[in-house]
Design goal:
It comes from Inquilinus limosus. This protein has 334 residues and is mainly α. It is built from 15 helices and four strands. It has a single domain (42-326), classed as ABC transporter involved in vitamin B12 uptake, BtuC (Orthogonal Bundle). Strands 1-4 form a two-stranded antiparallel sheet. It is globular and about 55 Å long. The model is unreliable at 1-14 (pLDDT under 50).
């Protein structure tokens, strides 16, 4: 005879998901550590700056959550970000100035379409070509980076019109009721992503494909279409992140987006999404992106570890997160 440790009023079992709560607990611990190491860490300006700087990775990682939940992987997001940013800036530089707002809106629309097409290419090559996503996106990572370097002629691509740059700046530096615009974009993308993944038939199909591809196919789910669409979502998320990134510096270089794929995948894994597929946590992913930025901020404000080791620390974080996931999977009832 077995009993549940806790039940709802209706008598249904209530199970506490440690993996879902872990990233938020880790973020809380890091905030306490940061406050102890430097009192300025808890200042409103610093916390808002941390959340704002996490926008790029958080938005991209939402798309990566869909891809990974469906059992895929995308290593090209960093290079894709630089390529989309470079094309967007070149368009704004080539077009006659005219109405600046209209030009910016056009460039944004083109960036979204280009990001979706890049994602579609990754998805089709993976599904129709029957090639492992690791190989496909490793190849497109090199293609996108090479195209960016070619467009920039080995240098940088900068917005030329000062008036246009001034008009575009509020997309990153602006606020709405005191809240930075990038934070609002994170919340909007997260809310939309959570709705699609948890409340729609497509989201259920994504999870089903990642859990067991054969069972999903026998259940009538168009596995290839679902997987391809997750890559399209990833491309759109990359483009949205670029829309927020470009006004920050007003330029794209050969190193734009470098190692963003590592940070995005780390945010997804730290957030509790299973790298093997089948389980996706949008808000956990966003929390994971915040964790990465908080760790970097703590390293910058303290003298315990050199800030030049941020990449090494992030690499260690993803390894630790995978070890924790593996240990939790081995525990009964989790």
């Amino acid at each position: 005879m077995s009993t549940t440790t806790s039940t709802t009023p209706a008598g249904r079992g209530l199970k506490f998901d440690i993996r879902a709560a872990a990233p938020f607990a880790a973020l809380a611990v890091l905030i306490v550590v940061g406050a102890l190491l430097n009192p300025n860490f808890l200042s409103a300006d610093n916390l808002l700056n941390v959340a704002t700087r996490s926008a790029f990775i958080a938005i991209i990682a939402v798309g990566a959550t869909f891809v990974i939940t469906a059992g895929g992987l995308d290593l090209s997001v960093g290079s894709m970000s630089g390529f989309v940013a470079g094309c967007m800036i070149l368009l704004m530089n080539a077009a006659p100035l005219g109405d600046g707002a209209t030009l910016i809106a056009l460039a944004m629309a083109v960036a979204i379409v280009l990001g979706a097409l890049c994602g579609l290419g990754n998805g089709l090559i993976t599904t129709v070509g029957r090639i492992e996503p690791f190989i496909v996106t490793l190849g497109t990572m090199g293609i996108f980076r090479g195209l960016l370097i070619w467009l920039a002629e080995g240098g940088s691509i900068a917005m030329k019109a000062p008036d246009l740059r001034a008009l575009y700046r509020p997309v990153y530096f602006g606020t709405v009721f005191g809240v930075p615009v990038p934070i609002l974009v994170i919340l909007a993308v997260g809310a939309l992503g959570a709705f699609v993944l948890y409340r729609t038939a497509f989201g259920r199909h994504v999870r089903a494909v990642g859990s067991n591809e054969d069972v999903a196919r026998y259940s009538g789910i168009a596995v290839d279409r679902v997987r391809t669409l997750t890559y399209v979502i990833q491309g759109v998320c990359v483009a949205v992140a670029v829309l927020v990134y470009v006004p920050r510096l007003g330029s794209a270089t050969s190193t734009t987006g470098l190692l963003w794929e590592l940070q995005a995948i780390t945010a997804v894994v730290v957030g509790g999404t299973a790298l093997r597929g089948g389980v996706g946590r949008i808000w956990g992913t966003i929390c994971g992106a915040l964790i990465l930025e908080v760790v970097g901020n703590i390293m910058t404000l303290s003298n315990l570890v050199s800030e030049y080791l941020i990449g090494a620390v992030q690499g260690a974080i993803i390894i630790i997160a995978m070890l924790v996931q593996r240990s939790l999977l081995r525990r009964p009832g989790t």
